[in-house]
Amino acid sequence: MSSHLSILYHVVAFLVVTIWGSTFVFTKLLLLGGLTPAQIFVLRFVIAYLMLLAFCLWRGIRWVSDSWKDELLMVFLGLTGGSMYFLTENSSMNYTTTTNTSLIVSMCPLITTALICLFYKSQRLNRRQTMGSLMAAVGVALVVMNGHFVLHLSPRGDALAFGAALCWAVYSLLIIPANGKYDTVFITRKVFFYGLLTMIPYFIWRPELGIHLLVRQPELVWNLLFLGCVASMLCFLAWNWVLKKLGAVVATNYVYFNPVTTIIFAWFILHEQITVFFILGTLLILVGMYLADRH
């Protein structure tokens, strides 16, 4: 039974990353429709939070954590896994190429592993697991570049992309003590709430939500509903559950698959080209993942 459950955890992690990889296409369509990255983030998180809040009210809701320290932990989870992550990742593309951003952000499993190993001795990797992680990272580089080995150095954009990867690594670290005390639904609802709350200063600076664009282009609403209902609410619930079951190091390694699914969806919907480097990179990710997840 435990073996079947272990397989289920890995399958869920893979499906979540697959869906997150597809969000590139839906986000791009919303950007082409005139919405800004900040508007997309807030609208999708509002949809996700309201749906999760309705579910919690139906099942019986817990409003606050056991202590102010735990509530502060939830604030930092909403900041690192919500507002700061999405703002730094999306803003980086204003200063550097999508390739640079994708490559740097997809390295977050390496940063996560290093950070968690620093604080938790029990989760340190052996030599084989370290080799697997590095092999998967090389595979990501091949997949993201997809045969176009051209990188444009941009200190500001690259720093923002690295900031996004660091935010997700800190989120993965902070959720370990949170998962030890609270259930997945409570944590996820707090992440959405504080992710939205910490966006208020940004919208004081730029007070425009872009609702009028959705009224003029109702076809964009379906993309936004997918991002809010599926990619945000369901996927964050599933991901936080998987983090609890598999551990942050093993679960975060699945992020290596993110650029693979992104390019597959881009090939299928946007007709972007797939090269032999993509196939080679995918094989390296698979082998590296196998080695990294073996104890």
Number of strands: 0
Strand content: under 5%
Summing up helix and strand content along with how strands pair, one would put the structural category as mainly alpha
Tell me roughly what share of residues is in helical segments: over 70%
Shape: globular
Q: Describe the sheet with the most strands.
A: none
Distance between the termini: 20 Å
List low-pLDDT spans: none
Order of SSEs, N→C?
HHHHHHHHHHHHHH
Note the total helix count: 14
Radius of gyration: 19 Å
The chain-level mean pLDDT equals: 80
Tell me what the structure shows.
It is a single chain. The protein has 295 residues and is mainly α. It has helices at residues 2-32, 37-59, 68-92, 98-105, 108-119, 127-145, 155-181, 184-197, 200-205, 211-216, 219-246, 248-252, 258-269, 276-292. Helix 1 (2-32) packs antiparallel against helix 11, helix 3 (68-92) runs antiparallel to helix 7 and helix 5 packs across helix 7. The two termini are 20 Å apart. The model has no long low-confidence stretch (mean pLDDT 80).
Characteristic terms for this protein:
295 residues, 0% strand, 14 helices, mainly alpha
Task: Summarize it.
This protein has 295 residues and is mostly helical.
Present the secondary structure layout.
Layout: H1 2-32, H2 37-59, H3 68-92, H4 98-105, H5 108-119, H6 127-145, H7 155-181, H8 184-197, H9 200-205, H10 211-216, H11 219-246, H12 248-252, H13 258-269, H14 276-292
Helix pairs in contact: 1-11, 1-13, 2-8, 2-11, 3-7, 3-8, 4-7, 5-7, 6-14, 7-11, 8-11
